[in-house]
Amino acid sequence: MTAKIIDGKGIAEQVKEELGPAIKSLGERGIIPGLAAVIVGDDPASKTYVAMKERACDRLGINSFVHRLPEETTESELLALVQDLNTDDKIHGILVQMPVPDHIDSNKILDAIAQAKDVDGFSADSLGKIMSGREYFVPATPLGVMVLLERSGIDPSGKHAVIVGRSNIVGKPLANLLMQKKQGANATVTICHSRTPDVSVFTRQADILIAAIGVPGYIKADMVKPGAVIIDVGINSVDDPTKKRGYRLVGDVDFDAVSEVASAITPVPKGVGPMTIAMLMSNVVKAAENGL
Prior knowledge:
- The protein is an alpha/beta fold and 292 residues long.
- The chain folds into two domains: 30-114, Rossmann fold; 139-273, NAD(P)-binding Rossmann-like Domain (Rossmann fold, 3-Layer(aba) Sandwich).
- It is 39% helix and 16% strand.
- The protein contains eleven helices and eleven strands.
């Protein structure tokens, strides 16, 4: 068996193209969706992610406002900026790029973002709404996974979905989305994490296996049930002297080996990553529409 490759990049392009009419309609009302991104410090990955979001905004006709702050920015200074953005009519969505420096309480910052502008969906209010089935803004990566499954013809209903990873960014919200009592969900969900004694006991039961643990090649072929659907959320840099930049990107799944066991699999790159950007753009447009 050779797994079908789930084309996250292609599906993301569809999602972004479908935003065109809504953006045009907003423009006819004199509204240009606006996204404010705040980055504190010089984390290389964070700078890359923010640049990707800037490019996506520019391509779609969404205004992008990037605030690059020094590492020594205080918590009170960052909170003051968030409050200013909350009241700025040009801004429909606010994201504070994680991680922030250790001297800043990330939860305090996320909870300070106005609910109507929390397009990253990381505040306690947004996450609570997901748990109760009344989601407002869903974090972009979990939302991207759900859209990938839907547009690939993979129905989670009645399936056993196993998520490896319990972060507030991916694991926990995705588990809640998959178990909701509605179309496109209705899965039985298991979450594994760093304290799970033998992860493979659970992964071998999965009809849908989602890897979001941040360890290169963690999921091996013998951990996968034949015919399972594999969603690889991980993105890791590993040394590769054959590459001009000296490294290559890999996921949390041993792609080549697992592809021989699974029925469908997302690649890294060009899998979940492009969907994250596309769903963030979708959330920004939704925020602008909600403000009418």
